[in-house]
Amino acid sequence: AQSVTQLGSHVSVSEGALVLLRCNYSSSVPPYLFWYVQYPNQGLQLLLKYTTGATLVKGINGFEAEFKKSETSFHLTKPSAHMSDAAEYFCAVSASQGAQKLVFGQGTRLTINP
Amino acid sequence: SAVISQKPSRDICQRGTSLTIQCQVDSQVTMMFWYRQQPGQSLTLIATANQGSEATYESGFVIDKFPISRPNLTFSTLTVSNMSPEDSSIYLCSVATSGTQYFGPGTRLLVL
After folding, report:
1. What is the pLDDT of residues A94-113, one digit of tens each?
2. Inter-chain contact A104–B100, Cβ cutoff 8 Å?
3. Is A99 in contact with B99 (Cβ distance < 8 A)?
4. CB of A114 within 8 Å of any CB in chain B?
5. Cα–Cα distance between B81 and B34 in angstroms, integer?
6. What are A34-65's pLDDT values in tens digits?
């Protein structure tokens, strides 16, 4: 079975500062990992995904994440926060390459301070 | 990617009634999924809908409460039956294509 833990339900950073959102997973098989963003009153938008290959994955809006098998982590980072990054971020894991049956973390609300 | 639309975008319903949510995707897909997002919480998978077969429900969700139809490869409906205030949530459909799930904008349901 798969599970996801996002450390920190709320993260607040200043505009221009580093964004770091933490995600740890548990999986009995090689995982497929995803980060989604949800802006207020909207659906989920895919930021990036890891399936196989390069462990550093680049996504949209300047975000990237690194898959670390030894630490069972898939933390999301962005070097310089922008006000428009304020949103809810969800980490998710799937046991299948077809991205079936995603298991989501609890989400992290990111606030950007001017 | 896939472009997904849902109807209605939001609704306010009285307890004891039912609401059917429609999900339309712009391409043919094998698998469609329905999720529930309760206020301030994460997403929970309700069921997986394949065209031509019965939907597969996750633990804690039953067909009598959440009947699903999947008449073709681009469309699905989820009905929330005999609603109570606890059903107030965002309901999202998604599709899996090219190794990724893409989500619709969601239906925001408030049950009074």
Report:
1. 987 777 789 999 999 999 99
2. no
3. yes
4. no
5. 15
6. 999 999 888 899 999 998 888 999 999 999 99
